[in-house]
Model the fold of this input.
Amino acid sequence: MLTLKKISKTFNPGTVNEKKALDAVSLDLADGDFATIVGSNGAGKSTLFNAITGAFYVDEGQIILAGEDITYVKEHVRSKVIGHLFQDPLKGTAPHMTIEENMALAYLRASTAPHAYFSRISGREKALFREQLALLDMGLEDRMKQPVGLLSGGQRQALTLLMATMVTPKILLLDEHTAALDPATAQKVLELTRRIVAKRRITCLMVTHNMHQALELGNRTLMMNGGNIVFDVQGEERSRLTIDDLLSKFHDSAGVRLDNDRILLSR
Amino acid sequence: MGSIFTLSILQSALELGCIYSLVALALFLSFSILNIADLSTDGCFTLGCSVGAVVTIAGHPFLAFPAAMAAGVCSGFVTAFLQTRMGVPSILAGIIVNTGLYTVNIAVMGFSSNVNLFGCDTMFSLAKDLSDAAWYGSWHKIVIVAAIVLIIGVIISWFLNTRLGLSIRATGDNEYMVRASSIDPIFTVTVGLCVANSLTALSGAILAQYQKSCDINLGTGMVTIALASLIIGETLIGKGGMFKRVLGVILGSCLYRFIVAVALRMSVPAECLKLVSAMIVAFAIAFPYLKGKASFYKMRRMPAKTGGEDGDDGC
Done:
């Protein structure tokens, strides 16, 4: 579904702040793959996501999504088929607009006809939004006319997830999307993610700092360091892997003592 | 004091309030919705005024309005182009366009700093001939401008609830979300500024016919005045649906004109009008902040009554 061919990106080239954020990263994600990504801060995980969404163009290499070369496709055009969730729950929704209006914006992806510019939210769409919101089991379906700014972080993140998947994306990018939530809410949002991704067979990449999640969720685990994928495991080998194995891999690949307190060892 | 609130003051405040409320609506779009401070407003207002005046003199009193609006769209497009495609910061883009428009405006008026419309047919003079009723003679201007403003208000609030309108609102509300959605911020900013500037120019064209003249310095300070109207309106009405907010802006504009009229009545010399305007604007913008401050000090002064109930105050 997603193929990255040796993509590289250097920020601030030619200055003292030069930083090679992506160093010839190659990746081949099959249709329906759900891969988790671990790696310390600065390993290039978010940069990889931003390269895929088109926040910047890569210096070298090729990005192919569903057979189409999107290396130089504009960000807003790509985002029609890419779902992207940020760590910050405030980034995914417009706070001064109602839940209904936010969902209508996400649903814009569904229509490409130019005449849709001047159409309003129809009753049929409202019913669809309501039905989808009810799946979250957070009572949001009765608050559709309220501004999103009134929702809690967890509710906003759940809503963002719903919006990102309302029109099934070709790939869903989850950038530590539960890291800013309390443990119970994080669990709920994660459960929701798992359910939606499994039900629609969405190809998915998820960054996490939780080693337990990294092994337990999805069918593939990637480890990034220094702008490269240093470890890629799936299938039989992955199911035998323990958290300790993963941590020692982390030591080996990073070549440094693991003192990053954001790596969690929850069971 | 009774003499301060005469009918004629109320009448002219309403007329001017309605005309200028279109500029306030333009800033509502650019400043409140798109979160862009569009400083080309002054020049764009004069542009609308001069284009409207020239077309009216040429014998097309009704064509004057679409012509002025088209000129406004062009001005808005240039501002948007500079900031979305040329990397000019939005405030600078407005200032640059504003400066350039001065020459354009002079040129539109045939390289003269003012033109007058005496003896020309205007929308107001043509409408006046429609009826001989006594009340109509003095109220026809209000009826016309109020109708125009209401129609524009309805269209704007309808527009902001269409998909394109929602996209424009999202652009000003959350940049990250817009980038992650399939919305092109360059397109929405351009459309938003074009619509806003067409309203500014329309307001200028109506004013040209209303006061039967156009002067190159007419727009000076317009952005401040419109901002004051906008903020008075938003403070009065507060949050709510789009139509309610639009109505609030129109109301704010009328109220502002009323305050100015009263200030003039209270023998404030006309030369001081700009200073009075600036003071009203500063006060209107500071008011919501001061209100919050005041309630904070009030709360702090009686900690035993409010904070004390929690039991852990001061920990």
About this structure: The CA atoms of residues 148 and 315 of chain B lie 59 Å apart. Chain B is about 75% helix and 0% strand.
